[in-house]
Structures are given as C-alpha cells and as structure tokens.
Amino acid sequence: MPMTVDSREPLPLVPAPTVARHLGAPGFTLNGRVAVTGDEAAVETVRGFLAARTGLLLGTAAEGVGIELRIEPGGAPESYTLISDAGGVAVAGADAAGLFYGIHTLIQLVRRDRDKWLIPAVRIEDAPRFAYRGVMLDVARHFFPVETVCAYIDRAAALKFNHLHLHLSDDQGWRIDLPSRPELTRRAASSSVGGDPGGFYSAEDYARIIAHAAARHMTVVPEIDMPGHTHAAGIAYPDLVETPVLTDQMRADAAAFASPLPAEGVPYTGIVVGFSSLRIGDPATDDFVADVVTDLAAMTPGPYLHIGGDEALGTDAADYAAFLAQATRAVAAAGKTPIAWHEAGAAPSLHPGTIGQYWGFVSPTGDMDAKTRAFAERGGRVILSPADAVYLDMKDAEDCPLGLTWANGPTSLHRSYAWEPGSVIPGLPEEAILGVEAPLWTETIATAADIDRMAFPRIAAAAEAAWSAPHARDWDLFRVRLGGLTALWDAYGIGFHRSDDVDWRDDDA
C-alpha cells in the first residue's frame, strides 16, 4: 500500500506500517486546548512525548476535539489502528503494547506548519511481522551505567523493538552480582577493554533496568556467555577455567588491533576472542553453571536466558557439545527457554526447544546455515542477527572513528537495510523465525554518545526488518521517511550520524 501524504512525500514513519493511507483532508491541529483521554498509562505517555516534541502540555479533560487512546482486544498481538483528521485523533491497540506502538507512530507524524503543530489526516493499520524484535547491548567489553541502558531502551522502544538482550559477561568483565557467587563481581568486574573502568549491576540495578524496560513493553534477555568468553569468570574462580589457548590467528589479530594477548590469572583488556574455556566435566564447573543460571533466572521475569556458546575455539568439540547439552538443561530446569548462538546447533543433545541466534553473514558461509537449521529441526526457533547487516558496531564507512570491519567490511545504511530475513537461511520456513535482533558490541564503544553514533540511523533499518511486512519495505522510500525523523530525533537528544544516504530535514525550522 502507498504511504503518502501527497504524491511527493511519504509519511515519516519508521518502521513502515502495514497499511497507511492519506485521507485527502485537513489534518488535526495541536494546541493547548487539546485534551488526551482514554487509557490512563497511555495518556501520560502521549502527554510526555508531545511535550518533549512540541513544548505543549496537553490537558486530560475532554472538551471537544482531542486525542483518544484505547485498548480494543481482538486484533493481532501488538497491533493498532490510528485515524486522524481535523476532528481528532483516535489510536486503538489490540493490547497495551499495540497502543504503545500506535502512540509512537502518532509522535512520528507530528509536524510544524509555520506557527502550528499538525498531525496529517491518515488511516493506519499496523501489526508486527515478527514477535521478537531485539537490540543487544554488550556491557561486558565496556560497562554502561543504568541510566545509559535505560536511555537505549527508550530509543529502541520508540522504533517498536520489544526485547533488550544484555551481554553480561565476557573475557573482559563480569557485570551482574549474583548471590551465590559474590566473587564474580568482587574480583572480575573492574576491568574493561583498553584499561577503561569496569563496573557491575547490583540486584537493585538490574531490577531497575527490567522495570524500565517493562514499562515500555520490552523484555530483558540476559546472557552469560559460556563455555568460551569466560576469562573474567576465571579471575574470580581460577579452578573453573582452562589455561588460555592461543593460535597464530589470535596472535595476528592482537597485532592488527594493537591488542594485548591474554595471560592466565590476569584481567583481560584486549579484544582477541576464542582463547578461553570453562573446565568441562568438572563437578565444580557444573555447580557453577547451575548456580549462575538459577540466580539469574530468579532475577529475570522474562521467558528467556541466553547462554552464549559462540567462539569457543579453545574448547574440545566433544566437550563443547556435552557442555551445551548440560547448560541448556540447566536453563530449562530454572524455568526459562534457553537461547544460544548458532554454533550450538552442532551439539546434538541440546534441550528441545532451545532457540538459536544466527550471527553469520546474510549469505551463510561454511556450515553456519546447517547449524542454524538444527535448532528448528529440534523444536526451537531462530533469531536472525546477520553480522554484515545488523551488527551496529561495524563501521558504517572506512573513515568512521569507531567500530570494526570484520563483517565483510564497513556496513553502510543501505547494506543494513537491503536484506530479507526470510532469505538468509536456506530451507528455514518463516514460522521458524522468531525474529530479528541488532547487536551492539562495545570493543570500541565506551560512552552513551558512542552508542548513539553507531546505532543511529542503522537501528532504524533493523527495526523495519523486524516489524514491517515485506510489501511495505522499500529502500528509496525508507531514505525519505527516515529523513522526516530529523527533528524528532533531535528533540529526543539522539546524537545520530547523518548518513549521506539520507536527506535529513529539520521540518521545525
């Protein structure tokens, strides 16, 4: 369906809705006399966002025309409709999440017209393509305070993402305080890449993040990466890990990145991967995994717990398979659905229903696709995170001051958009795809400003891949729609990169 206000300019909506029609009539004028009514939580959300966008503080007592917000059960989960004309605006969600997403569509529509604020006359019907729409923030390579994580939640939720994957442990640091294993944060949380300060989340901090996310209809997915990426765990519990296994490739990577190599018992501040491993088959390791999984599951209300499983290059293949079988069973025993990176598909005895997360390329190499299909063949589903499309830590151009280039070189905005989730893994049916996730690894990213610089605008391309129906996706229209969000992102204080692919337009001038 066309998404046009007139024949010249698409509606400034990202991700693209399923159906959006201009009604060919005068729009709705926002002013101080407009009231917002309906669902109480939604009313306060709209008033807050409109105040940030326009400076207007709208009332809540209905007097004539206004904005009506309501929940009308019966539609698809997270779906909504939005109708606006000169007589008012009505947003109806099939559930609270759908109403929330309809509100963000409403906010994107707001435009200044000389001395007035207008919402065009439109009818929108919208629902998500995939149930899981995620962003991942790596807080292990560099640690970020609760306020920064919550700000990222706000930014992602506005683009209709509904999961936040927190990468809580890696070789460089352990970031979550667990009651059964206090040495993890006491001894292994103070380091980061480059010798930068570390840190960790207390149980109260983690609960604040979860509550902030839940208020924005976002589920937190914690990850403890195992059996590799465990050097920090070994700083706290040396008897649980093997001696680092170094290869010629790791030495070459260390030289290329001017990164130190790991040393047994010394906190790691470099970015080489694949050298660490838990000591598999040791009863003490089994106890450690059970303790960590049980504690984290008890702290996490969401249904998922991610156990990593990637880049375990220092782990024997048979040991790796045995460990993943045991770890996924431990997660299930704790009442959660396990998620693991796609390498875990090689383990034949994963707990049935384990979800696989694919981080290979848009065109799979080697046996990446077979390992990924294995999850669906065993009753699980798949989250797609192709690194050369949605890894937000990849440079967007050769001269980008941050980021890496290992995922087939720099990832431009165009490349981050021009992929189709249903075509990545041959033989994987659409119903086996749980959703799309855009990870942000932080080897080179140390501040909130760095997060904004690398995530925006490419996070919008990932949002559209996750939410929008295939028929609604169009690169040329996306570039125009994205440019229409310039003033809104400025109002939100997002320090986004002004990609040359987009004509950024400040319509509030």
Automatic annotation (TrEMBL):
Its EC number is 3.2.1.52. InterPro entries: Beta_hexosaminidase_sua/sub, GH, Glyco_hydro_20_cat, Hex-like_dom2, HEX_bac_N. It catalyses: Hydrolysis of terminal non-reducing N-acetyl-D-hexosamine residues in N-acetyl-beta-D-hexosaminides. Residues 130-469 form the Glycoside hydrolase family 20 catalytic domain. Pfam families: Glyco_hydro_20, Glyco_hydro_20b. Residues 12-127 form the Beta-hexosaminidase bacterial type N-terminal domain. It is an enzyme of class 3 (hydrolase). CDD domains: GH20_SpHex_like. Keywords: Glycosidase, Hydrolase. PANTHER family: BETA-HEXOSAMINIDASE, BETA-N-ACETYLHEXOSAMINIDASE. Belongs to the glycosyl hydrolase 20 family. This is beta-N-acetylhexosaminidase. It comes from Microbacterium sediminicola. The lineage of its organism: Bacteria, Bacillati, Actinomycetota, Actinomycetes, Micrococcales.
